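re: the backbone from monday

yeah here it is again, tokenized this time
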């Protein structure tokens, strides 16, 4: 045992090609899969809440070192070497990338009036991730050899792995942030000891205006990682929505009794949320679409050069078993047959009703954007990779081609979203694959083993993430009797099979009802999903958890809803182009806002996301950015006073504040998922609800725990 541990300790870094230490072993691979599932679940939660994710590769690398070392001591086994630690972060990096791709596209199905079934979500998640890993393989060698590609997160991960002795204290910071975020969220959103979203609505002097903040640990952590500039730009978008656009609409439209499309009642009778949902969301969607396209246009030289390099690399000689270990990778035969198998499997599935044309488009867009994503990851890092812009471009081009050939039916909308989903997952996973392979190159890993580890980690995470997405939606779904169509006869339509109520409402009504799906409004009946009784009378409105509008059950119990901003944009593009029914004036206003920002030298995409999101989501992100700015300046002054060199980008990426913020994100998101699922056990949910017994702090006092959390993060982040 001692000799084995010594051999592991004596490995040079990077590990030379003539050494072949253990690498793709069960323990590290299993740990990577588990961490991938945890961070993937937190990423799907963030994607649904604010349309953003942050790279989890560095926290996973830190945890790998510490957890494997602790397991080695506990069981008296061989100490893991650097390649096994690297395998943990390789397998663990797949979850986050898949979560973004699934969360950006699949919820759009419900927004268009369809059910988000598990089979389609699994198809997109699993096969999209496999396609991304396989299609990146021909680009690995030219990209890894390109000196212009720095792969910032991949390089940082390699340094963390090399300096493994610091993993203990660093991991304590991640674990500390995780448990702080977990318990903070449980006390706030589970026990309801203070309000989640303190709100101030202005009076008659400023009608329609309001400010709010969702004081959650995961959004604070996101703000710290993205920094003050991005957080400030997002907050600016929220200020435009809630303190300019909504009050302006209320002022100009509040005097008349007419209904302004796409609203369904007079503006004077609308509250703030109704004005936002009817008008401002379309403006925000137009701005987000324009921002994504602009980010793609900026990357066009990179797109062209990446595509050329990718095509050249297909004909390049591949590494074989006779090649050095550090150059062995999946053979071109495996790559081509595997990618072809994935395309055929998707094309023949019942979830892909657009035939050969759809398969060709999916293959072309997937190859293009996997290539682009890998190169952009090398230039700007995976957290800044504009995957949403690539997805918008895919969906726009697919829908325009479908429109040109007459594919405008409901099944074609499903097909277009499935193509966009597969391409989005493939591009996201392709970028993550590029990052982990760069880390492997810097520590001397075997590419083929990393590719196999990434495949296993991605597929496993995809299975869990798909189920998590549906569970979050189901747990926050409301069955309400209080709606406009209650008691009206159901319109002539094809009913779905009967289904029972789920969640707390099932305790009151155990019956089953036929399902009525209305993608478009009927006379007197808004679009949505309804349950119809045996007399053909509409009884329940089924308000989904994702993009639902009803935030409390009929008994007054509050329910968490997920805005899913990027998915709403995908639904708007698909429906708007294929049905040619959109409030184009509002969309064009959003496009013009994005254009003005770009002319002023301000990045339009984060601002557009801020316009689309509730101000409550942008405010804590901005607070996290302020803490990052203060902590960075404090550390800079301390280093200058000690005569030390300025902090490098690598040190900043793995600083205590970033590690704690990653823990806050994971802890808060995991608690949020657990509490959402707790809605399926209403008795336990009521038992832990101390706020319902009069213990909840009011709006002003609710800020105190958040300020305490903010100060704790600032104290940790100021450490060197």
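seq for it, each position gets an aa:
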């Amino acid at each position: 045992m001692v000799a084995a541990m010594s051999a592991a300790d004596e490995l040079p870094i990077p590990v030379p090609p003539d050494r072949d230490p253990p690498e793709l072993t069960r323990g590290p691979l299993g740990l990577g899969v588990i961490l991938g599932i945890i961070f993937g679940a937190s990423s799907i939660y963030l994607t649904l809440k604010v349309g953003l994710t942050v790279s989890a590769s560095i926290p996973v690398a830190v945890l790998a070192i510490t957890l494997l070392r602790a397991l080695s001591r506990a069981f008296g086994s061989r100490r893991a070497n650097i390649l096994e630690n690297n395998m943990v972060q390789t397998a663990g990096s797949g979850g986050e990338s898949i979560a973004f791709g699934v969360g950006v596209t699949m919820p759009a199905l419900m927004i268009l009036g369809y059910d988000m079934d598990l089979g389609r979500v699994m198809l997109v998640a699993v096969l999209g991730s496999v396609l991304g890993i396989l299609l990146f393989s021909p680009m690995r060698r030219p990209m890894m050899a390109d000196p212009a590609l720095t792969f910032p997160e991949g390089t940082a991960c390699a340094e963390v792995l090399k300096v493994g002795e610091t993993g203990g204290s660093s991991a304590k910071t991640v674990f500390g942030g995780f448990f702080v975020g977990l318990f903070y969220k449980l006390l706030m959103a589970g026990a309801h000891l203070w309000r989640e979203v303190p709100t101030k609505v202005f009076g008659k002097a400023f009608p329609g205006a309001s400010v709010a903040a969702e004081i959650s640990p995961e959004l604070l952590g996101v703000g710290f990682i993205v920094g003050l500039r991005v957080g400030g730009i997002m907050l600016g978008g929220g200020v435009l929505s809630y303190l300019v656009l909504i009050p302006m609409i209320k002022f100009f439209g509040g005097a008349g009794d007419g209904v302004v499309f796409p609203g369904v009642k007079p503006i004077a009778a609308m509250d703030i949320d109704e004005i936002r949902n009817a008008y401002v969301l379309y403006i925000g969607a137009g701005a987000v679409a324009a921002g994504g396209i602009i980010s793609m246009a900026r990357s066009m030289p990179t797109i062209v050069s990446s595509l050329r390099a990718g095509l050249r690399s297909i004909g390049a000689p591949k590494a074989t078993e006779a090649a050095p270990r550090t150059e062995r990778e999946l053979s071109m035969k495996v790559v081509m047959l595997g990618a072809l198998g994935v395309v055929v499997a998707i094309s023949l599935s019942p979830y892909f009703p657009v035939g050969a044309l759809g398969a060709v488009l999916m293959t072309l867009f997937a190859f293009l954007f996997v290539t682009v994503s890998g190169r952009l990851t090398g230039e700007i890092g995976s957290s800044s990779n504009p995957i949403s812009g690539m997805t918008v471009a895919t969906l726009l081009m697919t829908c325009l081609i479908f429109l040109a050939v007459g594919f405008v039916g409901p099944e074609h909308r499903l097909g277009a979203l499935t193509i966009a989903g597969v391409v989005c997952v493939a591009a996201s996973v392709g970028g993550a694959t590029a990052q982990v392979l760069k880390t492997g190159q810097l520590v001397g890993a075997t590419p083929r083993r990393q590719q196999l580890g990434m495949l296993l980690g991605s597929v496993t995470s995809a299975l869990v993430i798909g189920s998590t997405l549906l569970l979050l939606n189901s747990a926050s779904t409301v069955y309400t009797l209080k709606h406009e169509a209650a008691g009206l006869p159901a319109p002539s339509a094809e009913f779905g099979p009967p289904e029972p109520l789920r969640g707390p409402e099932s305790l009151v009504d155990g019956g089953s009802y036929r399902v009525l799906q209305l993608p478009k409004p009927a006379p007197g009946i808004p679009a949505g999903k309804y349950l119809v009784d045996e007399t053909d009378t509409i009884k329940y409105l089924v308000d989904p958890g994702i993009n639902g509008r009803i935030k409390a059950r009929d008994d007054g119990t509050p329910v968490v809803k997920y805005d899913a901003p990027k998915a709403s944009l995908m639904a708007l593009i698909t429906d708007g182009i294929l049905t040619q029914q959109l409030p184009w004036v509002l969309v064009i206003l959003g496009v013009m806002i994005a254009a003005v920002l770009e002319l002023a030298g301000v990045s339009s995409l984060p601002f557009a996301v801020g316009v689309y999101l509730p101000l409550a989501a942008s405010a804590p992100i901005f607070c996290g950015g302020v803490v990052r700015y203060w902590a960075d300046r404090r550390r800079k002054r301390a280093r200058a006073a000690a005569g030390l060199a300025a902090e490098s980008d690598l040190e900043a990426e793995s600083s205590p504040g970033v590690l704690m913020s990653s823990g806050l994100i994971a802890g808060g998101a995991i608690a949020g998922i657990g509490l959402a699922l707790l809605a399926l056990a209403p008795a336990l949910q009521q038992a832990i609800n101390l706020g319902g017994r009069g213990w909840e702090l009011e709006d002003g006092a609710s800020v105190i725990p958040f300020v305490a959390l903010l100060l704790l993060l600032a104290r940790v982040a100021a450490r060197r």
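Residues 565 and 613 are 7 Å apart (CA to CA). The longest strand covers residues 512-518.
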